[in-house]
Write a structure and sequence with these properties.
The chain is mainly beta. The protein has helices spanning 3-13, 30-42, 57-70, 76-88, 93-96, 214-223, 370-377, 410-415, and strands at 24-25, 52-53, 55-56, 99-111, 117-125, 152-155, 159-174, 182-195, 199-211, 233-236, 244-258, 263-270, 273-274, 290-299, 302-311, 328-340, 343-353, 382-393, 397-407, 423-432, 441-450, 473-474, 477-478, 487-496, 502-515, 545-561, 564-577, 584-595. The protein has a single domain (3-97, 132-595), classed as Capsule assembly protein Wzi (Porin, Beta Barrel), CATH 2.40.160.130.
Length: 604
């Protein structure tokens, strides 16, 4: 990122700080499913704005405490879930699950005003009425696994450190594909910490060798990037020819400080997600990690986030010379408001832009509308606005949705004439917990629809004839839905926990989209210029090479130790295209072991 922007960040981070945010729970962790269930079921006023992901570990522990204090009726499995959240973020348990009594030799100052104080005896101990606790166990070799949630940890008054190994090893076979083995071999470490209860940090380092199902391999070959990971090199095992595929490292890291009790600043390399659904039309976590600066303000019923990021308009395999990748930038605002404890509304705007020699500092304004800045600059930048909403009902249901607007003309919209620049996307979904009265049977339905050419732009990237610089992507991967645009999608999800440590997850999705071939753009390829559009009017979802995808998946996980899983995976997928050579059938079965990492989903 521009050095002047980096300097501004360091200047701000150097201010005095107070207690506030903490490190986050990675996406895909069980905590997100648990939180959805407990928020809907309890009906309490949660400190978390659920559309802003990732969730703070400190907020999750506070949320558990609020639920227990509320007295809401919960099942034994719910309490097991809450204990999981505490074990996973045990650095904050003592902050919320203690009581003070007058029975020890320790003393604290109780100030009457800013000068005078009295001395009061105190003892800090666990609330005896709580069903929850700070779990401990007999350590391994004196130092390891002192608590279930962490392999190694240091806890002092002003410093806490948590270290965990990361493993994801799985093998499988595609009965419809070639003879090559489908496999993944991920190893790494995860480290998080807290200094003075004010400064938090997180990092992970992964190394992976793997081969994917044919529909993913075809996408990698087309876009020269692995979804969610980015760069890669070819891998061929010296042990067996069956283990051929890709070798790709990955890492995430961030440092966060609290400027005041309500304002936090964070600098890092990661990705983000906005919304309550399986996918997001505003900001998804499908693309590779990116460098960012984030300001987060939480006060009263508001949570306001400013995110500034440095992105790459192409992948490294498209880079023609041995030089740095070209740069583009993203600036976005997201304001979440809770008018009532069961209603959440979010307003979103973002701009993607590129400058040859500098960051556009006018986009640093934290509250101005980006369309105003764009008009003032007479710029060709790509501005999108959006709306997110969620409504919890009857302690069983949650209805959510999104609208994204790239461009539109009201007159053409009313005429329904299929004007190409009416670029709009919509999402509607519903979650149903403890479905049909069955404890921990949770269902979810979601429908996504995005018109052709949404997220796309016409300003060409220097040196390229078709690819643009300001489209809504990073490293050749969409920043919103994986299908880009010109599609309808329906998703059904099932999560069932018959016993505490056994999770059964089912998924069915059906998508219809219009594909584009070389030299044409029917609206699904957000990377390419809209100047190649096929028609000014008469555009519709599914135009181009009509493609239908149906997919049925099932994952069964048994957690034999905290965040250590034995797993079985199954997938049946059919991609039926109007061009026979684009058809793909997949029948996959696999198994593996996973520790301290989630399975990253790739559906397309």
């Amino acid at each position: 990122m521009n050095m002047r922007l980096f300097g501004v960040a360091i200047f701000i981070l150097s201010f005095g700080i107070a207690n506030g945010q903490s490190s986050y729970v990675p996406m895909g962790n069980r905590a997100y499913q648990i939180y959805d269930r407990l928020e809907i079921k309890s009906g309490i006023n949660s400190p978390i704005h659920s559309s802003l992901k990732y969730y703070s570990r400190k907020d999750l522990v506070e949320f558990v405490k609020l639920i227990e204090d509320s007295g809401v009726e919960l099942s034994d499995k719910d309490y097991a879930d809450m204990q999981y959240l505490l074990d996973d973020s045990n650095e904050f348990i003592d902050e919320f699950f203690v009581e003070v009594s007058n029975s020890s030799g320790e003393y604290e100052k109780k100030y009457i005003d800013s000068i005078f104080y009295t001395v009061k005896e105190k003892e800090i101990q666990k609330n005896p009425n709580s069903r929850l606790s700070k779990s401990t166990r007999d350590p391994v070799l004196r130092y390891f696994f002192n608590t279930p949630g962490n392999f190694y940890e240091i806890e002092t008054e002003n410093f806490q450190l948590k270290l965990n190994p990361v493993v994801n090893v799985k093998f499988g076979k595609d009965l419809e594909g070639n003879e090559d083995l489908i496999f993944q071999n991920t190893r790494g470490i995860e480290l998080r910490g807290l200094i003075d209860h004010k400064i938090y940090f997180y990092t992970n380092l992964y190394e992976t060798q793997g081969r994917f199902n044919d529909f993913i391999m075809r996408r990698i070959d087309k876009y020269k990037a692995i979804p969610g990971f980015g760069s890669y090199k070819d891998h061929k095992s010296s042990v067996s020819n069956s283990f051929s595929g890709y070798d790709f490292p990955n890492s995430q890291a961030y440092l966060g400080l609290n400027v005041t009790k309500h304002v936090a600043v964070e600098l890092g390399h990661n990705r983000h997600f906005l919304g309550n659904g399986y996918h997001s039309l505003l900001l998804n976590d499908y693309a590779n990690n990116y460098f960012y600066l984030k300001f987060s303000t939480k006060i009263w019923k508001f949570h306001y986030q400013n995110l500034f990021a440095e992105l790459a308009p192409i992948s490294d395999r498209q880079n023609p010379l041995n030089v740095l990748l070209p740069k583009k930038y993203m600036a976005n605002h997201y304001l979440s408001f809770k008018p009532r404890k069961n209603i959440e509304i979010g307003l979103f705007e973002t701009v993607i832009f590129s400058r040859q020699d500098h960051f556009e500092f006018q986009y640093l304004n934290p509250i101005i509308l980006y369309r105003t800045v764009e008009f003032f600059l007479d710029s060709p930048d790509n501005v999108l606005i959006g709306l997110n909403g969620k409504w919890n009902l009857f302690n069983r249901f949650s209805i959510y949705g999104q609208v994204i607007v790239d461009e539109f003309n009201l007159s053409n919209l009313r005429q329904r004439n299929g004007w190409w620049a009416n670029k709009i996307g919509t999402q509607i979904g519903m979650k149903y917990i403890d479905a049909f009265g069955i404890d921990h049977l949770d269902l979810q339905f979601e429908y996504n629809s995005v018109r052709p050419y949404t997220y796309a732009q016409n300003r060409l990237l220097e040196g390229f004839d078709e690819q643009t610089v300001s489209n809504y992507s990073h490293f050749n991967q969409p920043l919103a839905h994986p299908l880009g645009a010109n599609f309808n999608e329906t998703v059904f999800l099932l999560n069932f926990q018959p016993i505490n440590n056994l999770q059964i997850r089912g998924k069915f999705l059906y998508a219809l989209y219009g594909d584009s071939q070389s030299g044409s753009n029917w609206g699904n390829e957000i990377l390419y210029t809209t100047d190649l559009k096929e028609s000014e009017f008469g555009n519709f979802i599914g135009q181009g090479v009509e493609t239908k995808v149906s997919q049925l998946a099932c994952d069964i996980s048994y957690e034999f130790f905290h965040n250590y899983f034995l797993e079985i995976h199954g997938l049946i997928r059919n991609q039926n295209s109007a061009l026979d050579q684009l058809d793909i059938k997949t029948s996959y079965f696999g198994a593996g072991i996973r520790a301290n990492i989630s399975n990253y989903r790739i559906d397309y």
